[in-house]
Every structure is written in C-alpha cells, then in structure tokens.
Design brief:
The complex is a heterodimer of chains A (about 290) and B (about 300). With about 290 residues, chain A is mostly helical. Chain A is built from 13 helices and no strands. In chain B, helix 7 runs antiparallel to helix 10. Chain B is globular and about 65 Å long. The chains are: A mainly alpha (about 290), B mainly alpha (about 300). Chains A and B meet through helix 1, helix 3, helix 4, helix 5 and helix 7 of A and helix 1, helix 3, helix 4, helix 5 and helix 7 of B.
C-alpha cells in the first residue's frame, strides 16, 4: 500500500512539477525543452491584458470575500442561534449554491443578467453593465453559502453557555458578541473568508458567463488563451497561479493551527459529511 | 421568621414565576425570532434576488417556446424542450456524460480506497503530511491542474517522450476520451480520498481484531467488516466525484478538445451558438434534478447534519 500511495502522489505532483520545469523552456512549442529562459515570465509581465485581468480578479475576489464574510457570518449566527419564520427555507436556499453544478449556475446568472437585469436595475436604481459588477454579484451569491457553512461548523462546536454566562454577568448583546462570540468563531470566519477568496480567484465557469467586454478575470482570460491554442506563456501564467494557490494554502493551514486546539488533524480537511466539507464543495464550485 | 412570612415569600415567588412563564417567555421568543430574521435578512434577500430568481427564470424558460429569431416567447407553455430529451443525439450526449461520470467515479474509488486505508494505518505525523499533500492539489487552481495535463499529454510532449524512450512508442492521448477521464480523475480524486479517509479512520479497530480472532482472513475481514463500515465515506465520495464529473465543462474542453460533446458543453452551446434557451434550460433542469436526487440520497443514506 505504501507503493500505491507513492504512485498516487506521483500522479498528483508530476504534472505540476513538469509544468514548472517547462515554464522555463526556451522552445516555442509547448512541451519541448529548448534551454533555460525567463522569456515567458517577461512576456507574461508585459502583457497588458493579462495584468489587467489580474487586477480585475483581485478586485472581484476582495469585494466578494468581504461581502460574503459579512453576509455569511450573519446568516450562520441567525441559523445556529435563533429560530425564526422561514428558517428552513433559508437553510435550503443557502445549501443550493454549494451543490449546484457550476455550468448550471453560470447559465442561470447569464440568463438573469441578460433578461432580468431591467428588473434589478429598477429595483436598485442603478444600471448594471456586464463586467466587474456582474461577476462580483455572482461570486458573492455562491461565496455566502461557503462562508456560512464554515462559520456554522465553528459555532456548533462552541459552547453556547459561554454566551449565556456573559449575559448573566450583565454584558449587553453587543458586548457578548464582541468579547465572547466573535473571538470564538474568528478562526471559522477567517477560514470561511480564505475559502471565499480561493473560490472567487479560481472560478472560471461562472465568471465566463457573467463577464463582459473589457472586464475578464484571470482564469477566464487564461481559459480563452488555452482554447485559442497554447503558447509557452500560459505555462508561466499557470506557475504564477499555482504559487498564488500555495500562498492561500499556507494561510489556510495557519488558520487551521489557530482553530485546532485539541485535534491534530487539519480541520480544513473534510471529514466525511458535506456540511463539514467546505473544501470539497469548494472544488465542486470552482472546478467543472 | 413566622410561618406566615415564609408562606407569603413562597407565594410571592410562585407569583413571579407564574407571571414570567407564559407571557414573558413568549415575548422573549418573539424577540429572538425577530432578531434571528433580522440577522438572516441581508443574506436571505441577496440569495432570493441573485440565486433564487435566476434559478426560477431557468426553470420557467424550460417550459417556454423558442421564437424564430432565437428569443423567448413566454406565451404558450409546453413540454417540447423536455420531449427533445428523447431524441437520439440528445440521448447520446446524456449517456456519454453519464458513462464518463460513472467511469471517473469508479476509478477514483479504486485508486482512493487503498490510499485512504493506508493513511489510517501510518503514524500520526505521516498521516498529517499525507493530508496536507492531498490538500495541495485540491486547493490548486483548477484551470492550472487541467492545463498541466494538457502540457503533459501533448503530442511529442513529456509523456510521449518518456514512452518513446522506454520503447513503448509515441502516445497521443490528448483530445481523447482517455485524456478527459484522466483529467476528471486528477481533478476530483481528493474528493474521494478525504471522505473515505474520514470514514475508515472512524472504524473501531477492535472490530477488525474481533473478526480476525474469529478466523476471518484478510479478504473476509475487508468485505464483511471494513467495507460495510466505510460505506458512508464510499457514498459521500462517490457523490462528490460523480456530480461535478457529470456537469464538467472545463476539463472536456481543455483535454477533450471539445470533440466529445458532453452535457456541460452541450448546455452551454444551447445558450451560445445554438440560441435555444428553452432546450438549454430543460437540460439544466435535468442536471439539477440528478444532482438534487444524488444529494438527497446521500442524506437518506445516513448522511449527517445538513
């Protein structure tokens, strides 16, 4: 079985390793070795469309993360701590974006922004053009659910008697939240935020259907490049994207360390049920 | 303290308690309900506008008629789009996607099970390292992972050079079904490993010892004890692999070159070049129904808290 595990790891890492090696290859044909060069990184850096799309990606991801952390945490608190009318419907509504295939979600948003846009415009009193705004709005829609799931998992593991004790000691609701609840759930909130950030930065399909002329995210732009025909520059872009993922993973593990006081297993690792599996759902979303 | 005083005190206390119970608690419950709703409201409203409404539009469209210009006519509801699901071309796409998703799920299961089992028997340190090693590809950008295979499988590329060097001849796997399956397995294998690991780890080891004490051999112990007890993980992992494989869009495009038309890209075509929104919508509804059925089945099967 040890051999088998080794083979699985080779399967996992060989493609990424080869990608990194070939990003330094001087040959114009992808996958041919032609001596060491940094040209592709230079070309990537000087490509305005690429750097613009990185800016768009970061803008979208940051706004989507902040908005979904606020909305998701609030909804987690509401669902975990209160019973209210429409709670069950809300609960179901929160889970749907996680399990729906992202082609379907992309199509939904495409049709919505094409047809329902006038209604939304008149409701919100703004005019939406396809682009950064519509991408961000769609990203928030699925990120809320993931943040909510992660924060709820944390909340359900928290002893609610701590909050009661604070209130018994004459803390106001706000003080209770600020000094008791928030510090307890903070690792969950941070983990949910990182998950939202990763999902937003990763997403290809939904962004593709909601992006407009002049505003595409990095994955959408790279996807269109790959479809047009691969050039070695894509290797260098991919390596940079891989390194960005590594930074996010490192942050995630850091949050894990904060979070797991008793257990020695990283808690960002799914544990066999959907509800505790932000990561799994995450990829369902960012992936297909 | 006289007897009467005590009695009064008691009565007083009973009085306050009695007054507090029904009215006060009902008011408190109402206040809590209001507070809960108030906190949920922003996300609730957001999801109704930006998720439920788009969802409803797609469902409504699936019953609408396509106009000659490719628009949507909302007068005249019908099931035409659903009837088209019976057409030969459509059935081919559906079966092909289903077959590919099932094949991907089975391969993932066969590869992941021994791996997950191995993770439960190594030392804690080794196990944590393995978990992190599984998580890294799992969190890596999806596009990058698929692109890496495109590079690896390209004709005259790294894999081909290796097989040629060891005398197996050139391999030209890119843009074949095999490439798509490799890409899907690569993408979703962690989804299988992690739930499997979680469920195998939970098995009480004394049950395995008991089975050995009762003269079961390794295979019998596995089939009668370990496998049944790890079923929740098998089911969870299978659903987590099957559902995204069925709706896959990026992988078939990058590694299959769009040669094999699969459900995901077929749906997209209906909203793009084919401009048949009702038909595309009905295909989406089919995909969502499959996905929801699978999820409900999972929770029926002893799926824990949702």
């Amino acid at each position: 079985m040890g051999v088998h595990a080794g083979v699985v790891f080779a399967f996992f890492y060989a493609p990424i390793g080869i990608l990194i090696i070939f990003s330094f290859s001087g040959d114009r044909i992808v996958g041919q070795w032609g001596g060491f060069t940094l040209d592709w990184y230079r070309e990537f850096w000087n490509n305005d469309q690429l750097t613009n799309s990185i800016t768009v990606s970061l803008q979208v991801a940051l706004i989507a993360t902040v908005a979904s952390v606020v909305l998701g945490t609030l909804s987690a608190l509401a669902l975990e701590r209160f019973r209210f009318r429409g709670r069950r419907v809300f609960d179901a509504l929160l889970y749907l974006p996680i399990i729906i295939p992202d082609v379907t979600m992309g199509i939904m948003m495409l049709v919505f922004f094409a047809e329902g846009i006038d209604v939304v415009d008149s409701l919100l009193g703004i005019s939406l053009a396809k682009g950064i705004t519509t991408i961000t709005l769609s990203h928030i829609a699925f990120c809320i659910s993931f943040v909510s799931v992660v924060v709820r998992a944390r909340l359900s593991g928290m002893d609610s008697r701590l909050e009661e004790a604070a209130m018994d000691l004459y803390a106001t609701r706000w003080q209770t939240f600020r000094y008791v609840t928030l510090p307890q759930i903070l690792p969950g909130v941070a983990g949910g935020g990182l998950l939202a950030l990763t999902l937003s930065l990763d997403d290809v399909v939904i962004s593709q259907f909601t992006s407009g002329p002049g505003a595409t995210t990095l994955p959408v732009y790279v996807f269109s490049l790959i479809r047009k025909g691969v050039t070695p520059m894509i290797n260098s872009v991919s390596v940079v994207m891989f390194l960005a993922s590594l930074v996010l993973i490192a942050a995630m593990l850091g949050v894990d360390r904060l979070r797991s006081t008793g257990s020695n297993v990283p808690s960002a690792v799914p544990r066999g049920d959907l509800s505790a599996e932000p990561a799994v759902g995450g990829h369902e979303r960012g992936d297909t | 303290m006289s007897v009467s005083e005590i009695a009064t005190g008691d009565a007083d206390e009973q009085h306050t308690v009695a007054a507090a119970t029904p009215a006060f608690e009902a008011a408190a419950a109402r206040a809590a309900a209001r507070r809960g709703l108030f906190m949920a409201l922003p996300a609730y409203v957001y999801l109704v506008i930006f998720f439920a409404a788009p969802f409803a539009i797609v469902v409504i469209y699936s019953f609408a008629t396509r106009t000659r210009t490719g628009g949507i006519s909302l007068s005249g509801w019908n099931l035409d789009s659903y009837q088209r699901l019976g057409e030969q071309i459509v059935r081919d796409v559906l079966w092909r996607s289903l077959g590919l998703a099932i094949l991907t799920t089975l391969i993932c299961l066969l590869v992941a099970y021994p791996f997950a089992y191995y993770m439960t028997i190594v030392s804690t340190t080794a196990r944590n390292v393995m978990l992190v090693m599984v998580m890294i590809p799992f969190w890596t950008n999806f596009l990058v992972r698929n692109y890496a295979w495109r590079l690896l499988l390209s004709s005259g590329g790294p894999l081909s050079s290796v097989t040629e060097a060891i005398g197996l001849g050139e391999t030209d796997l890119l843009f074949t079904k095999t490439a798509v399956v490799i890409g899907l397995v690569y993408s979703f294998l962690p989804f299988m490993i992690l739930p499997l690991y979680a469920s195998i780890e939970r098995i009480d080891h004394s049950l395995i010892e008991a089975s050995r004490d009762l003269y079961a051999n390794g295979a019998q112990t596995f089939r009668r004890v370990v496998l049944p007890l790890s079923m929740p993980g098998v089911i969870a992992g299978s659903i987590l692999v099957f559902v995204p494989s069925l709706g896959a869009y990026v992988t078939p495009d990058i590694l299959g070159g769009g040669k094999e038309v699969l459900l995901g890209s077929y749906i997209v075509t209906q909203f793009g070049t084919a401009r048949n929104f009702p038909f595309g919508a009905s295909l989406s509804v089919v995909l969502m129904v499959v996905m929801l059925t699978a999820t409900v089945a999972y929770f029926r099967q002893g799926g824990r808290n949702l």
